[in-house]
Amino acid sequence: MSLLEIKNIINKENLVYSKTKVVTDNVMHYCPGCSHGVVHKIIAEVIDEMDIQDKTIGISPVGCSVLAYNYLDIDWQQAAHGRAPALATAAKRLMPNHYVFTYQGDGDLASIGTAEIMHACNRGENITVIFINNAIYGMTGGQMAPTTLLGMRTSTSPEGRSVDLHGYPLKITELIAQLPGAAYVTRQSVHTPATVRKAKKAIRKGFENQDKKIGISFIEIVSTCPSGWKISPVESNKWMEEHMFKLYPPGDIKDSEKADEDPYKK
Q: Of 1, 42, 101, 159, which residue is most buried, by most CB within 10 angstroms?
């Protein structure tokens, strides 16, 4: 049966789901069980549903997401390692009517890019940040990241992360929530249908906040890295629930629209 014949059979009454036009036909390079593909998909759906495809600019730096431009049909700009918030700041200030977001991993945002993200949030840049936290450097060999859990084994902490040698994991999302320019700070995941819906809702809120000009929206996605963790995709989801969520619990951390009082605006 030809593709045209199949399309003729499937009418609107029978159609349950169709791929958004924002997602390209390119085959994703991500490892099986990786969270990146799911997050890409819901970002694309939000852009399509908001009808902002021609007004959206994505900024992707170094990391597993460096090839994101292959999968989402929007305008993209590559950034040096950790520098996506600075580039997004420039793009948004030059084109304030566009929707600008960064897509960054924990090694990028919470390590080499710590200064960039902190100052962008403190300035309250009117952008959206999507932060993928899988507690490891997934692209470059599975090294320990700032977000790596205590006791977690990586290629650079083969005996497990220890406080004496490596210090504590960095809960950067909680730190960012303290900054006055951070309007919306939330932590989500995408390992079940229910959590995917919550993450999609959070990302849409992050984009819609740009219309309100209330400051930066920071959305952390606690994610899996089966290749870096050396376990299967199914085991990765279980490990994330049992270990990652203890240190990085999902849920909203800050929402300026719900706050009774902002001490910085007295």
A: 101
Q: Which pLDDT belongs to residue 6?
A: 65
Task: Give backbone dihedrals phi and psi of 221, rounded to 5 degrees, phi first.
Answer: -115, 110
Number of C-beta neighbours around residue 90 at 10 A: 14
Sites in the chain below the pLDDT cut of 70:
1, 4-16, 259-266
Tokens (6 digits) for 78: 């590559």
- Indicate the SS3 state at residue 198: helix
Are the C-beta atoms of residues 222 and 248 closer than 8 Å to each other?
A: yes
Q: How big, in percent rounded to 5, are the helix, strand and coil portions of the chain?
A: 40, 20, 40
CA distance 69 to 95: 20
As a whole number of angstroms, the distance between CA 127 and CA 213 comes to 9
CA neighbor of 109 nearest in space, from 77, 75, 139, 145: 145
| pTM reported for the whole predicted model | 0.91
Per the CB < 8 A criterion, the answer to whether 235 and 149 are in contact is no
Q: What is the pLDDT of residue 10?
A: 61
**Residue 259: its pLDDT value, please?**
56
What's the CA gap between 51 and 104, in Å, rounded?
A: 24
DSSP state letter for 145: -
Q: What confidence score (pLDDT) does residue 65 get?
A: 81
Tell me, what's the pLDDT at 97? Answer: 97
- Closest to 100 measured CA to CA, from 132, 144, 130: 130
pLDDT of amino acid 64? 87
Return the CATH fold of 26-255: Rossmann fold (3.40.50)
Pairing of strands 128-133, 75-78: unpaired
Give the position of tokens 């083969």. 158
Rounded to whole angstroms, the Cα distance separating 61 from 103 reads 8
Cα(193)–Cα(210) distance, integer angstroms: 27
